[in-house]
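Lab notebook, bench 4. We co-purified these components, and the gel suggests they stay together. Before we commit to crystallization screens, I want a quick structural picture of the whole thing.
Request: model the full complex, all chains together.
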Amino acid sequence: MEIVTRVTASIKNQGKFDPATLELELDAAEMTLDGETTRWMMSKQIKTTSQGDIYGRKWDVGRYEAILDSVMEREYHKNLIYLVIKQGVTSIEDVSNRIGLDLKLISHLVSDLEKAGRVKFTGMTEKIPAFAAV
Amino acid sequence: MSHWEPKIVSFLCNWCSYGAADLAGVSRMEYPPNIRVIRIPCTGRMSAKFILAAFRQGADGVWVSG
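Here is the predicted assembly.
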């Protein structure tokens, strides 16, 4: 009973959750969970931490989970950028203004998205590189 | 806003937490009515997508217990 009351109070303190204002973030999170990278890493976790990887190196569970977390964070950011570009935002700076990530990180992740064929460079608009979702 | 109560979706494991919630009910103990209980076969059946779905459908918080 005490735990229920504590959890309820904690959620109450965090305030109302409005899915309409966080639709982009929810979509990006869902894409991350559906993504090949996350599913591949999840599927390899038990084997890698109990029997070892293809080189026979056994991974510590904590270390594997830390890497999994960082990979998922990266994938989430990539999906967030992809969705913003898909909505029609073309420049790195505008993407940054929209989602608040660092310009350097966005440039780096946009290169990844280009390599994966999810985003394409469409040319320069007033000396600013423009991108579009594929 | 002062009367606002959060909607909490709780996913409870059939074999432990759900049993506890059931027992609380049988024992006539009261817990906040803003908690919606969803019984799942095991927390191993839980998917992060269930959490996202709950948030999308208006939950203010999600509780997974098992």
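Residues 8-65 of chain B form one domain. Worth comparing against the SEC data before the next meeting. The beta strands of chain B are 8-13, 35-40, 61-65.
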